[in-house]
Amino acid sequence: xxxxxxxxxxxxxxxxxxxxxxxxxxxxxxxxxxxxxxxxxxxxxxxxxxxxxxxxxxxxxxxxxxxxxxxxxxxxxxxxxxxxxxxxxxxxxxxxxxxxxxxxxxxxxxxxxxxxxxxxxxxxxxxxxxxxxxxxxxxxxxxxxxxxxxxxxxxxxxxxxxxxxxxxxxxxxxxxxxxxxxxxxxxxxxxxxxx
Length: 195
Description:
With about 200 residues, the chain is an all-alpha fold. Helix content is about 75%, strand content about 0%. The chain has eight helices and no strands. It has helices spanning about 10-20, 20-50, 50-65, 70-85, 95-125, 125-135, 140-170, 180-195. Helix 3 packs across helix 5, helix 5 crosses helix 7 and helix 6 (about 125-135) runs antiparallel to helix 7 (about 140-170). The radius of gyration is 21 Å and the shape is globular. About 25% of the residues are buried.
């Protein structure tokens, strides 16, 4: 077997090739996390609500999406969604590939964040809400000032994990023609080992 030696010049060249992709990757990750957080909050709210229909819909969405590998979900969104929408006369021919990646990341990460937000909210003792309301705060003020900071603190480690997961999943965008820093690194790596 041939042993490959570390060559500093090749490493420096690879880093220079990766630098232009940093802003693009950061933009994708920030927008995807924002959209995923909104979608996750919506699903968590639906799960915590007393409405059985909303709770059932949220459970079905989260369980179906969480059980699907990201690459499969990306292919379903990229190839199948436009065809399904054509049946109801919605044309997605002009939609860019980045939009499909955002849709997939929002579904994938949002369904996971829904469980993070729900469990963080339920981890805060319910008597704190009752005590805050009895002290004169409105329900919204009690949630915003008392419950939310504690729930955010509880959810913080999992939010960090979700951020890293989104960063890694963006690299699979190259399968539909989008290249970010992770995808470019894979391309450089595969090219380096093929020569």
